[in-house]
Design brief:
The protein is an all-alpha fold. Helices cover about 95% and strands about 0% of the residues.
């Protein structure tokens, strides 16, 4: 159970990291256009 909870709480963290990394990139692309 504990392992499942840990692995499950890992995905939201990865999503946040992706959003933080992709956010500025998307903003830059929008400004470029």
């Amino acid at each position: 159970m504990a392992k499942n909870m840990m692995s499950r709480s890992r995905y939201p963290t990865l999503l946040v990291v992706l959003i933080v990394l992709l956010g500025p990139a998307v903003a830059g692309i929008n400004e470029g256009q």
